[in-house]
Write a structure and sequence with these properties.
It is a single chain. The chain is of the alpha+beta class. The protein has one domain: Arc Repressor Mutant, subunit A, CATH 1.10.10.10. Helices cover 67% and strands 12% of the residues. It is built from 6 helices and 3 strands. Strands 1-3-2 form a 3-stranded antiparallel sheet. Strand 2 and strand 3 form a beta hairpin.
C-alpha cells in the first residue's frame, strides 16, 4: 500500500511540473525558482537555510536560485538582528506580482485536475496533505 502512495504522489508531482512549466516558461523563471517565489510569498523573512529545510531542497541549489531571483529583482535579502551573516529573504513588488501570476496558473491546473473527479473532497485532501507534509518535515533522519 505505501509503495502505491509514493507512486501516485510522484506521478502527480511530475505531471504537474511538466504542465505548469510549459505555462510559466514565458515568465523567465524555472520550476524551482517559481516554487521559491511561491514559498517566500507564503513565508516571508525566513533564512535561506530555513527555506531549504522546509522545502526539502539542497541548500546550494536554493542559494543559486535565490541569487538568480535577486539578480532579476524578484527577491531581496535583509540582514537580521542576529548577525550580519544571517539574511532574511523577502519578495520585492515585482516578486509579489510574479507570485500572484504563478498562483493563478497553479490554481487553474489543480482546478482542472480535481474537477475531473467529483469524488475528491478537496478541503479534506488539502488538510490531509498539509498534515502529511508537516509530519514528514518533522521526521528526523
Amino acid at each position: 500500500m505505501y509503495f502505491q502512495i509514493s507512486k501516485y504522489l510522484g506521478a502527480i508531482y511530475r505531471k504537474s511540473k511538466i504542465e505548469i512549466n510549459q505555462q510559466i516558461q514565458d515568465l523567465g523563471v524555472r520550476a524551482t525558482q517559481g516554487d521559491l517565489i511561491l514559498f517566500i510569498n507564503d513565508n516571508p523573512g525566513l533564512t535561506q537555510k530555513q527555506i531549504s529545510k522546509m522545502m526539502v531542497l539542497d541548500a546550494s541549489l536554493v542559494g543559486r536560485d535565490i541569487q538568480k531571483l535577486i539578480d532579476n529583482a524578484y527577491v531581496i535579502r535583509h540582514s537580521t538582528v542576529q548577525g550580519y551573516r544571517t539574511n532574511s529573504i523577502f519578495l520585492t513588488d515585482k516578486g509579489v506580482k510574479l507570485a500572484h501570476t504563478l498562483q493563478a496558473i497553479i490554481e487553474s491546473w489543480w482546478y482542472n485536475c480535481l474537477s475531473q473527479d467529483k469524488s475528491v473532497d478537496e478541503p479534506a485532501l488539502a488538510v490531509q496533505l498539509a498534515n502529511l507534509y508537516h509530519n514528514v518535515i518533522d521526521l528526523k533522519p
